[in-house]
Amino acid sequence: MSDALPPHPLAEAPRRARGRPRKTADERDDGNRRQDLLRAAARLFRTQGFAATSTRDIATAAGMRSGSPFYHFDNKEALLAAVMQEGMVSAAARQAEAMQRATAPLKRGQALTAREALRVLVRNHFEVLLGPDSDFIPVMLYEWRSLSETERIEVKRLKDAYEAVWVPVLQALQGSGELQGDPALSRLMIFGALNWSVQWYDPRRSASLDDLTEAALQLFLKELA
Fold first, then answer.
1. Is residue 41 located within the same domain as residue 131?
2. Is 14 among the domain residues?
């Protein structure tokens, strides 16, 4: 039998870090305050610009104290990256839902035509850009250069995954003769044209999103005889 004494209870207690303990993910998102910050930041970054918006502005818009954003984000740059990432994740989810709704009424074995699929994708993209709660993606378009290189890589990964859904559709349209250009180049041109609508679209004076969708299809696709 060993004569060694058992360790003193205090000797095994982990040392606690000084200062205020870091909040858990659940605590940081308590009451959806993180989402409130993201929405407020997206709106202000879009209307005022990233450089002209302070964390105090964002906290005030979200109904928080001036230091509250730092419970959720290390700095304003991290908040900007989160706004863009949130926007792309939400856009991808909405795109998947739109495609699922469009295919749900079809009988087993049927599929959307490539033209119908592009119509769904274009209409959803206009909704993401111009519909309710549509500040996130325009911020990405305006403030891309404000991201660090590491943050750009992550946002680009999300953007590429979103756009990848369009690639087989455009390839099929080229195969049918409805799209005359190279699919990869056409994708860049189509997104450039659609994204520019955030600069000029006014729902009070412009056409509906359905009208914009039909105009885009007529612009990019050829009617088959």
1. no
2. no
Instruction: Report pLDDT for 30.
Output: 54
Residues 134, 126: Cα–Cα separation, whole Å: 10
| Residue 97 domain boundaries | 76-225
Here the CATH number for the domain that contains residue 34 is: 1.10.10.60
Nearest to residue 210, comparing CAs of 134, 131, 125, 123?
123
For position 7, what pLDDT does the model report? 45
Question: How buried is 90 (Cβ within 10 angstroms: 0-12 exposed, 13-18 middle, 19+ buried)?
Answer: middle
For the domain that residue 89 is a member of, what is the CATH number?
1.10.357.10
CA distance 131 to 125: 9
Contact predicate 183/139, CB 8 Å = no
Distance CA 179, CA 209 (A): 22
Q: The pTM is what?
A: 0.80
The one-letter code for the residue type at 183 is P
pLDDT classification of 207: cutoffs 50, 70, 90: confident
CA-nearest of 92, 89, 91 to 134 is: 91
Q: Phi and psi dihedrals of 43, rounded to 5?
A: -65, -45
> Is 17 within the bounds of a domain?
no
CA dihedral 141→143→144→147, nearest 10 degrees, is -150
- The pair phi, psi for residue 96, each rounded to 5°, is -65, -40
| 58 vs 135: CA distance, rounded Å | 14
